[in-house]
Amino acid sequence: MFSLTVPNMAAKITRTIFRDREVDEDRFAIVKYGVEIFLVNVTKGITVYLSAALLGMIWQTLVVHLSYLMIRRHSFGLHAKTSLGCTITSVIVFVVLPYFVKEVQLSGWMIVLISAFILLNIAIFSPSDTENMPLFNAKKRHELRVKSIKNSFCVLLFVICIPIESIKSLILLGCLLQVILIHPWTYKILKRRYNNYENR
After folding, report:
1. Could you tell me if 111 and 47 lie in one domain?
2. How many C-beta neighbours within 10 Å does residue 151 have?
């Protein structure tokens, strides 16, 4: 229900921003879209971390979320089609999954194996674009891939160095979530178009 009111709230806020100025429709639409994205992300964040607080999972959720974002910032990947779908999915992957993973302890060879799998997939499949944000520029795609690999390497190096087993598992979960969101199999299963830059 809230997602239905976001455009109206965004329009009201945008009108307030421009109340003393004349502005054309395109400018108004751009600012309104930015306000909508901000409101959706704030709402999603509050929902996710409130759910985490109710389960006593604040720091676990934060670890998974940060490790996920560190890689996602340059590798991109799938988005939910609706704000509500994004919020529900976020609660599941950042609160529910960590709840079951928080006590998991992995052996040294399992950590190395999972880390290698993550790094290999990031190197091969990042960045993954979407229908709404195709990455047409080949040079930009290469730069994003290099940054994604570097970010992944830094996160995985931290996994190897940190002595706390539960945090190792949570960081790897965050990385694996992003691998899933850039993988062509996920696009195929969800019937979403892959390599959108090829469809100019």
Report:
1. no
2. 22
